[in-house]
Amino acid sequence: MLFSRILRRNPFTAPFRKFTISAKMSLKALSSKDAASLDKDLMETGGFSLDQLMELAGLSVSQAVYRMHPPSAGKNILVICGPGNNGGDGLVAARHLAHYGYTPSIYYPKEGKNELYQRLKTQLQNLSIPFVTDLPVAIKSSHLLVDAVFGFSFGGPLRDPFPEVISQMEAATIPVLSVDAPSSWDIESGPPKEGPGAGFMPEALISLTAPKPCVKFYRGRHFVGGRFLTQPIAEKYGLDVPEYQGVDQVLEVGVDAEGRL
Q1: Binding-site annotation: residue ranges
Q2: What local confidence, expressed as pLDDT, does residue 164 receive?
Q3: Its catalytic activity (predicted)?
Q4: Neighbour order of strands in the sheet with 221-225
Q5: Whole-number CA gyration radius for the chain
Q6: Residue 15's pLDDT is what?
Q7: What is the C-alpha separation between 174 and 78, in angstroms, rounded?
Q8: What letter would DSSP give residue 104?
Q9: Whole-angstrom Cα distance, residue 155 to residue 158?
């Protein structure tokens, strides 16, 4: 825990961490534009619905949580959700975490208006998963945070209430898992130079489908998830399908200084 606190305060002077991966694996970073285009292809030609993609993404997030922080390490998981698809992934993940035996709670300061998000919220309420309103108090009683605020479409600037939300996650002394990108980071150029998020370096990151360019600025545990790519779509975007093991929906990988796995 001491190392994680040092890493939060000085994220870009922290020791470089590299993980060993299969030599056969070559995972390319996917730009925001290509990530949006890939999702469109999955739905228009791949036969997937948005519900399905969000379910698979949230399942991957839940497995990353289980991998980095099993229930024996503390069951209180606070999922902080934004108003878009990244927040929807967090809502799905919370449902799975409840079934795994965790005690999740949701902080959802600006709810998505899409009917899909409302159904996800109803599913959580039916499981008696609480929606909390006091973020500092909720953080104090949690063992891990899931940052599901902003994903690959974020371009800034931060608008209320999210500057304070980002600052609270940045200051937290418990582990944080970010979904697709650390919230407040530009998807191409990484962390902001100043203000909320400038020192935000979560302990873990799960990249969905493929890493995004900002991953080259990241130092921590890195997972890739989203086990649904078809070979034709992977080839179109120059992606290699990760070598997932068994029934796993996530794979832990590392990054080099060029942002390529």
Answers
A1: 85-89, 147, 151-157, 180, 183
A2: 96
A3: (6R)-NADHX = (6S)-NADHX; (6R)-NADPHX = (6S)-NADPHX
A4: 131-132, 103-107, 76-81, 144-148, 176-179, 204-208, 221-225, 250-253
A5: 17
A6: 33
A7: 11
A8: E
A9: 9
Q: Which residues are annotated as a binding site for (6S)-NADPHX?
A: 85-89, 151-157, 180
Residue 186 forms beta bridges with which residues? 190
**Three-class SS of residue 204?**
strand
- Which residues have C-beta within 8 Å of that of residue 112, sequence separation ≥ 6? 83, 84, 87, 88
d(CA 259, CA 255) in angstroms, rounded, equals 6
Q: What is the dihedral of CA 26, 31, 36, 42, to 10 degrees?
A: -10
The parts of the chain modelled with pLDDT lower than 50 are: 1-26, 257-261
Instruction: Pick out the residues of the known binding site for K(+).
Output: 86, 147, 183
Domains of the chain: 32-253 (3.40.50.10260)
Token look-up 């992977």 returns: 234
Predicted local distance difference test score (pLDDT) of residue 254: 72
Q: What is the pLDDT of residue 13?
A: 36
Task: Give the global pTM.
Answer: 0.87
